Amino acid sequence: MTTDKKKGPARGRGTRGTKRPAKGAADTAKAERHATESPKEPETLSLAQAEAAASASDGGGFAELGLHPTVMRAIVDAGYTLPTPIQRQAIPLALKGRDLMGLAQTGTGKTASFSIPIIERLLDGPARTRALILTPTRELCQQVEEAFRKYGKHAGLGVVSVYGGVGYDTQVAALRGGVDVVVATPGRLIDHLERQNVSFDELEVLVLDEADRMLDMGFAPQISRIVATIPPYRQTLLFSATMPPEVEALARKYLRKPVVVQVGRRSQAATTVQHFVYPVPKQRKAELLAELLKKDSMDSVLVFTRTKHGADRVVRHLEHEGINADALHADKSQGQREAALQRFRDGKTRVLVATDIAQRGLDISGITHVINYDVPQQAEDYVHRIGRTGRAAQTGDAYTFMCADEIAMVKTIERTINQEIPRRSVPGYDFGT
Ligand code: AMP
User: Fold this and answer.
1) Most informative mutation of 140, 261, 363 for ligand 1 (most atoms within 8 A of CB)
2) Rounded distance from Cα 240 to ligand 1 centre (Å)
3) Protein residue whose Cα sits closest to atom 21 of ligand 1
4) What is the DSSP letter of 125?
5) Is the beta carbon of 110 within 6 A of some atom in ligand 1?
6) Is the confidence at residue 89, as pLDDT, over 80?
């Protein structure tokens, strides 16, 4: 554990200015709260069972990371048996208080690699806002908040996520009530800082998640304004799927002597995904998609289009063909996006058609196919897109529809992922047929 923690009197926040229970007592405290808050919470393993399971794991297991039983229990509840490579590398370093640059895409278990050490740190010490996670999108915000709830479920921590597109009231109430961890998109967080709904005077850990995407989305000025409100003696963890010079500059600006933790080669696509390119005339892409969806055993399909209108057009075409589909893009309200995601998760719609902005941070397990209906305009987006399938231990397929004017971009992608993507065709839909 780190020692750069700022000690000081509790701020006036009702009952929350008290010291958190000692680690050993955290389980009891949490159990008591849960007894009143959510009586239907599923049964979890006892502490003794969790400890036994942890120490029984072979070399390289979670037990070797030296985590507190309160956290171990949540990991066992989550059903994880072994840490992923990024977790094995990042957790011990983050626990020592080191600044970290994690080069890892979504799907590698990176969220746990920063949330677990943060939870360990928060088990001790005062209940104040001590950790901030900045993410590019509201979906990622919600996913990170869920991760904190999952891994911190026995730790009695307060977590809130704040993002745009929804009302302020609930967020203000949560922030003013006092929270340990804030997960936020930069724009909305600035609003809250300006209204003095939250203060980072005593923040200890800052995480910049999906830093490359935050910069792509133009959040650099907001990040700078937010960091200016945080004490300099914090721990800073930066995660990014890619490491272009802009991200390296960001890291130089905000991190102190960071250790670089890398999973796989730079820009390498997930190895659990099989890639195929389907050459197809532009005007026949919608037909090809419907054809594949009719024949192939594609259970849970995420389709990417370049534009919002393109996404809507594809959904209309699929529905015309009797295939259930939903669109997910920035013109949809937060409620519509959540409802679409829920229908997809529940298997009520097989196909979700999304734009790049909407795709980041989606954590939907069991996606069998990612389809690049339009070839992404940047090679790195290909890596992000296909990171939606083949997550954790699962495997998946990534199909890219390539029309004549997309051939050059596909070649660029192949160079970026250092892999030639095999061509496949459906008779009648190939070029020239
Ligand atoms: P992330 O890269 O953080 O988005 O995580 C990808 C997925 O892997 C999430 O659904 C996690 O719940 C899952 N996951 C994270 N760590 C592990 C682990 N050690 N074992 C199995 N699944 C994991």
Assistant:
1) 363
2) 16
3) 80
4) S
5) yes
6) yes
Report the alpha-carbon distance of residue 338 to residue 362 in Å, rounded. 11
HEC string of 321-355 equals CCCCEEEECCCCCHHHHHHHHHHHHCCCCCEEEEC
Give the C-alpha separation, 85 to 107, whole Å.
12
Q: Report the separation in Å between the CA atom of 92 and the middle of ligand 1, taken as the mean of its atom positions.
A: 17
Superfamily the domain 14-262 falls into: P-loop containing nucleotide triphosphate hydrolases (3.40.50.300)
Q: CB 149: neighbour CB atoms within 10 A?
A: 15
Distance 150 CA to ligand 1 centre (A): 11
Tokens of 404: 């004549």
CATH topology agreement for domains 14-262 and 273-417? yes
Of 287, 322, 285, 319, nearest to 305 (Cα)? Answer: 285
Any atom of ligand 1 within 6 Å of the Cβ of 107? yes
| DSSP SS3 for 413 | helix
Ligand 1 binding pocket mutation candidate from 64, 84, 142, 367 (most atoms within 8 A of CB): 84
pTM to 2 decimal places: 0.60
Q: Is 391 in the pocket of ligand 1 (CB under 6 A)?
A: yes
Domain ranges of the chain: 14-262, 273-417
Class of domain 273-417: alpha beta
pLDDT greater than 80 at residue 106: no
Is the four-CA dihedral 254, 259, 263, 266 of positive or negative sign?
A: positive
Q: Is the CB of 365 under 6 A from ligand 1?
A: yes
Q: How many C-beta neighbours within 10 Å does residue 197 have?
A: 17
- pLDDT tens digits for range 281-307: 999 999 999 999 987 678 889 999 999
| First-to-last C-alpha distance (Å) of the chain | 64
111 lines ligand 1 (CB under 6 A): yes
Please name every residue paired with 401 in a beta bridge, in sequence order, or none if there are none.
278
Report which protein residue has its CA nearest ligand 1's atom 6: 107
Rounding to the nearest 10 degrees, give the CA dihedral for residues 286, 287, 289, 290: 120
